[in-house]
Amino acid sequence: MTILLTDAIGVEHSRVAAGRACRIVSLVPSVTELICALGLAPWLVGRTGFCIHPQDTLASIPKIGGTKDVNIDKIRRLAPTHLVVNIDENEKPTVDELSRFVPQVIVTHPLAPEDNRSLYRLLGGIFGREQEADALCMRFDEALASLRTAQSERGTRAPHRVLYCIWQDPWMTVSRDTYIARMLSLIGWQQWVSASDARYPTFRWNADMLDEIDEILLSSEPYRFTESHADALEKQTGKPVRVVDGEMLSWYGSRAIAGLGYLGELAKAL
Q: Are 17 and 34 in contact (CB under 8 A)?
């Protein structure tokens, strides 16, 4: 019986037949790391320049551009059997063009930490790495349970209101229906709500918004905020400002397991 696995847009993918060699191109940094964690690095033939973990494993894998400025001709020459993309990170016209010659395009779109389980099982199921996927699910569940236990022991508190910044010039943040905001909510941190309905809205600093937040978080990626940015913004706004590890808070996949532990440390530091 053929086992079908459904991706984020409802496309069903068959399990790769035993003994069949695959050629995978990943346009999603966090999923590239997951592919390696599932033991699929030997099948990985292309990655973006932002796919940097695990460094030693990926050093010999060809780069095919960025997540949005993809070199389509280079991917064509790599002759992939599977392409892994993400709704937020990759441009639909680019994916549509690639789908004309890549037999299997796997679309991912985790919206909450708990979605990592289905992501592990989707890729593990397609590529015959079910045991590895189950092991990751177990580790994820253990980390999530540990975080929730620690939160319960800290007791009920008023939500810590934060503004999570991902870019400047223009300043950009995240909406509450993003993976990042839902990660923060696990420790009772409530993302500020923009008047815009965009998932990643721009904003301007003003007194009213500052009244609605307790702390400003500057992500280390995609914009490389540093402590100097934090110092300057703290003087400008009069609010506490902290630089946080963007990979730990925004990368789903295998890194999400460490991300849950990182969240616990952030909660302790408050």
A: no
* pLDDT at position 1: 46
Domain definitions of the chain by residue range: 4-109, 157-269
Residue 107 pLDDT > 80, yes or no? yes
Predicted confidence band of residue 155 (pLDDT cuts 50, 70, 90) = confident
Spatial distance between the Cα atoms of 257 and 270, rounded to a whole number of angstroms: 21
- Hey, is 237 helix, strand or coil? helix
CATH classification of 157-269, choosing from 3.40.50.1980, 3.30.70.1400, 3.20.20.80, 3.40.50.10310? 3.40.50.1980
Separation between Cα atoms, residue 46 and residue 49, nearest integer Å:
10
CB 64 within 8 A of CB 70: yes
Alpha carbon distance 64, 71 (integer Å):
5
The pLDDT tens digits for 171-223 are 999 999 999 999 999 999 999 999 999 999 999 999 999 999 999 999 999 99
What pLDDT band is residue 123 in, cutting at 50, 70 and 90? very high
Please count the other Cβ atoms lying within 10 Å of the Cβ belonging to residue 238: 9
Region 263-267 average pLDDT = 96
How far, in Å, are 104, 123, 126, 132, 143 from residue 6 at the CA level?
A: 12, 10, 10, 19, 26
Closest listed residue to residue 150, CA positions, set 182, 112, 188: 188
Cβ-contact 27, 21 below 8 angstroms: no
Q: How many angstroms separate the CA atoms of 241 and 177, rounded?
A: 23
Identify the H or E element spanning 12.
strand 12-14
Residue 142 Cα to chain centre, angstroms: 20
Cα 125 to Cα 16: distance, rounded to the nearest angstrom = 8
Whole-number Å distance between alpha carbons of 2 and 202: 46
Question: In residues, how long is the chain?
Answer: 270
